[in-house]
Amino acid sequence: MVRRCLSVVSMISVLQIAGAQDIPEATKVRVRLEQPLSSATAEEGQPVQFAVSDDVRINDVVVIPHDAVVNGTVVQAVGKRRMGRTGKLDFSIDNIVLPNGGKIPVRYSVVKKEGGSHAVSTGIITAGVAVVFWPAAPFVLLRKGKDTVFNKGMAFDVFTDRAYTLKEQKPIVASSAPAKAPTSNDKGPSLNNEDVIALKKVGYSDGLILSRIEVSGGSYKLDTQSMI
Q1: In this structure, are 139 and 173 located in the same domain?
Q2: What is the CATH number of the domain that holds 130?
Q3: Which range has the top average pLDDT, 50-54, 79-83, 124-128, 149-153?
Q4: Total domain count, the chain
Q5: Is residue 8 predicted with pLDDT exceeding 60?
Q6: For the residues 31-50, what does the mean pLDDT come to?
């Protein structure tokens, strides 16, 4: 029981350190297009959906999970025209939406241009962004009279436009009253993972937390998802 309790407290300490993690500016994030786009049907200002392709880790901690939503916008859409003129299509990749609801703007280069910021109004073609991967068909169909097409699954590398501090999960508020020392006959209320986190947050020592756990009837889950 004591060994299991120590595991709970140790894991909580690690998660608290991870919760204070920063995402530095210019962190590279690979994103993939989640929908096909064609100059024949796209409209300027239309939202474009992307997703993060791979987990982004800082100090071996996942700070941006794969499949996180990424927002984009069509900035130019012109269908194919007479005289064999090719259609035009361009879109921007604007921001990454974190699981906590926070948004990180992105840009297309590691180094921010002097006086510049992320180019929400600038598309990937205008910015000269190279496609990382495309399935099946060519990246852009440029033969005369063809519409410009981007295929679902195309991937692009972008970079965070500013540093971002991850918000820690708000703990359950524990009582601020001093805890009395437990006795062998003192069966306190059942505790769970969230209760232990709350006690840790308000300054209880590991020893006192272990004492509280030992006299409680609670049960604790140590799998990764439960600890998070």
Answers
A1: no
A2: 2.40.128
A3: 50-54
A4: 2
A5: no
A6: 95
Rg from Cα positions in the chain: 25
Same domain flag for 124 and 12: no
| Residue at a domain's end among 133, 165, 197 | 165
The DSSP result for the chain, as a single string, is: -HHHHHHHHHHHHHHHHHHT-EE-TT-EEEEEE-S-EETTT--TT-EEEEEE-S-EEETTEEEE-TT-EEEEEEEEEE---GGGPPPEEEEEEEEEEPTTS-EEEEESSSSPPTT----TTS-HHHHTPPPSB--SS-SS--STTPPPEE-TT-EEEEEESS-EEPPPPPPPPPP-SPPPPP-TT-------HHHHHHHHHTT--HHHHHHHHHTS------SHHHH-
Q: What is the pLDDT of residue 160?
A: 95
Q: In this predicted model, what pLDDT tens digit does every residue of 55-85 receive, in sequence order?
A: 999 989 999 999 999 999 999 999 886 555 6
Max CA separation in the chain (angstroms): 91
- Rounded to 5 degrees, φ, ψ at 17 are -65, -45
Q: What is the mean pLDDT of the chain?
A: 75
pTM for the model stands at 0.61
Q: Once rounded to an integer, what is the mean pLDDT over residues 128-151? A: 66
| Ramachandran class of 227: left when φ > 0, alpha when ψ lies in -120 to 50, beta otherwise | alpha
Q: Please state, in angstroms and rounded to a whole number, the distance separating the CA atoms of residues 179 and 175.
A: 9
Whether residue 152 sits in one domain with residue 187: no
The range of the structural domain enclosing residue 88 comes to 22-165
